[in-house]
Amino acid sequence: MMLSEVQVKEQRYRVFIAHDVSELGAIAVEASFELVKHQCIPMGIGLNPSSQNNHWDVIRAMIDESDVVFLLVGDSYGQLSPSGVSYVHMAYIYATTQGKPIFPFCLKRSEVSGMVNAHLGEFRKLLSSHKVRYWTVEADLRKQLLMAIRKIKTAQKIGLLPVSAKPSVTVSAGVKNHLSQSSQMKEIKALKQELEEAKKALAINSTALVRGPSKNKTVMVSFSAKVFSGGNFKTISETWSMTWDSIFLAVAPHMLKPISEEKMRLVISAVLATDVQAPIKEKYPESHAVADIRLTNDSINRIKIYLRGQDLIREVMQGRDIRWKLTESGDAYLTELYTEQPISNSFSS
């Protein structure tokens, strides 16, 4: 059979993933593995631009070479450039000026408060001019990624997506398998090796990431509570600011062994209760008791996503049930936090 008798058009899409490494680094790595599985080439994983390196120049070059740009947006506006604009925002602006197709993936119902989160709110409004794909847990993100990949391939087939891909390769049916098992497999192997190295680097630096730009960082959590007054009670919904360290210190000691999501919620809610009892009674002066303080689903999901993104906790399976456990980095960070706790030498009277 002559080579010209059968033509096989192999299309591999180069996808630049813009993300804040300190918040979504590990999730971006997982997203990259998903892209590799579906014949896409992920770009930009683990790049952490700053005024001390030239990564921003590298990012621009990668965007130039990419076919499409994926934006992963979580609870953080992202690391700021000297101009006060986050590098993720800068990547979006540059990709737009270059005419690249933009696919935003935004964490659903992210709280926006304070100066930095005000910037995040404006950024999310800007992204709303595109088709925004929302996610709450990694499974949602994986589903949204697959839908986006299908859309890219469909759009290119009907001529709506100008993909700057490598030239098509004309091969016979007899050598197609050889290509798949040699050059393509080598390429995938090389990509996986790069992703593994990025993942290891993220794991090694996870403590530095938390203690660096994220040290003392706060998050607004939502909760419900029962307020008792005159023999009756009413259920209220409120928000409260907690530091990530306080959240991690509360739940981490229980995660030396795998625990359920509900156990995580109960432990963190118990710590939250000690902080909010007095403010609730002050807001509702007629109340004589406050009980059943409970984090909302949205807040517990946000906590899981953030701690997992920092490589402090990981998902494990026990039978058919999902459990959560400390990673090696999480165990090391817990030890560090405990050694920093102040010691009191006073006696009780």
Keywords:
349 residues, alpha/beta, Rossmann fold, Arc Repressor Mutant, subunit A, 5-stranded parallel β-sheet, 3-stranded antiparallel β-sheet, 11 helices, 10 strands, 48% helix, disordered N terminus, DUF4062, coiled coil
Outline of the structure:
The protein is an alpha/beta fold and 349 residues long. The protein is 48% helix and 19% strand. It folds into 2 domains: 3-204, Toll/interleukin-1 receptor homology (TIR) domain (Rossmann fold, 3-Layer(aba) Sandwich), CATH 3.40.50.10140; 211-340, Arc Repressor Mutant, subunit A.
User: Strand order, biggest sheet?
Assistant: 2-1-3-4-5
> What is the third-level CATH name, the topology of the largest domain?
Rossmann fold
Can you identify the CATH class of the largest domain? Alpha Beta
- How would the global form be characterised? globular
Low-confidence stretches: 1-10, 110-116, 157-181, 201-213
Helix percent band:
40-55%
Can you tell me the number of structural domains?
2
CATH architecture assignment of the largest domain:
3-Layer(aba) Sandwich
Approximate strand percentage: 15-25%
Q: What number is the mean pLDDT?
A: 76
Task: Tell me the number of strands.
Answer: 10
Q: What multimeric state do the chains show? A: single chain
Tally of separate helices:
11
SSE pattern: EHEHEHEHEHHHEEHHEHEEH
Largest sheet: 5 strands, parallel
Q: What is the CA-based Rg, rounded?
A: 24 Å
Distance from first to last alpha carbon: 96 Å
Coiled coil: 181-208
Domain DUF4062: 14-95
Pfam families: DUF4062
Keywords: Coiled coil
